[in-house]
Write a structure and sequence with these properties.
The protein is an alpha+beta fold. The chain has a single domain, classed as YjbQ-like (Jelly Rolls, Sandwich), CATH 2.60.120.460. The protein is built from three helices and eight strands; from the N terminus they run ββαββααββββ. The protein has a five-stranded antiparallel β-sheet with strand order 1-8-3-5-6, covered by helices on one side. Strand 5 and strand 6 form a beta hairpin.
């Protein structure tokens, strides 16, 4: 069995963003040479997420509205965590959207349904953060 590791770095211009990283994950699979296996993609920060969904702007807007209802950014003083930083809502949003995805690799390609894409979700941006891609297989 072989393994391959790659990091992707992000520094978003907004506090919250959704970035389609499917192509970058597939590029890592291509470089790995692994044809059959599994690909783990996970956020290395506690206020960001990796998830699979449809790449549709209306849906991304719906995520934003829904998450803001569940864990509103303001007022900052509603959260006990907020003190040095004002990012308690980002921690909660990450819990909802998830830390990682594990995807099957078949024939050297992500084995996805027709609309599935991998996203990096940022909930406390404007600083450098990273995700890990770990690929194992043959």
């Amino acid at each position: 069995m072989k393994s391959y590791r790659k990091e992707l770095w992000f520094n978003t211009s907004k506090r919250r963003e959704y970035i389609n990283i499917t192509g970058e994950v597939q590029n890592a699979i291509d470089k790995s040479g692994i044809k059959e296996g599994l690909c783990l993609v996970n956020s290395m920060h506690i206020t960001s997420s990796v998830f699979v969904n449809d790449d549709e702007a209306g849906l991304h807007s719906d995520f934003e509205v829904w998450l803001e209802k569940l864990a509103p950014e303001k007022p900052y003083d509603q959260y006990r965590h907020n003190g040095y930083e004002d990012n308690a809502d980002g921690h909660l949003k990450r819990q909802i959207m998830g830390r990682e995805v594990v995807c099957a690799i078949t024939g050297g390609r992500l084995d996805f349904g027709p609309w599935e894409q991998i996203f990096y979700g940022e909930f406390d941006g404007k600083r450098k953060k990273r995700i890990l891609i770990k690929i194992i297989g043959e």
